[in-house]
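Figure caption, in words: inputs first, then the predicted bound structure.
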Amino acid sequence: MEYFSGHISKLIEELSNLPGIGPKTAGRLAFHILDMPAEQVESLANALTDAKNNVKFCNKCYTLTDSEVCPICASKERDQKTIMVVETTRDMAAYENVGEYKGVYHVLHGAINPMLGIGQNDIRLKELFERLKDDVDEVIIATNSSVEGEATAMYISKVVKPIGIKVSRIASGVPVGGDLECVDNVTLLRALNGRVSI
Ligand code: ZN
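Bound structure (zinc ion present):
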């Protein structure tokens, strides 16, 4: 027997498709949304579709942004010759929160993962190597310290080193398999400052 109306069931189903949201939380959120004033629900729905429709990849670093080139790539204050390679836009945000890094980024949108069939062509590696044709002093590899992150780091280093560009890896202050976003600022700063050439 269906307890809920089809609309409520559908809402719960959609919410429970989100990461980290089980059926119980989805139910709680669904009823919370139904209790919200209509204008607030509309504003939430618009924020979802507006973000999806308007956010795109930066032409240079492939982070998610509203413009063709993100504010960091467009900034004259940033050292465009130092590129930090991260797996996700969230990792980039974690480093930006520390506020010490003055270079630019490259967002791979994943890591090489043979188990899941994700190869070097499935993440933004080609685009990274393309950027190295410009004047670049250093590539800092800040992929996660998971097996996939390490495999990706090794691959990048193998390609970049022969070009004669300095390659470094952030120090192992970041916990193995750790989501960069969950690591505190002091640890991230230590990892960045303690990076080693590879
Ligand atoms: Zn950018």
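The mean pLDDT is 89.
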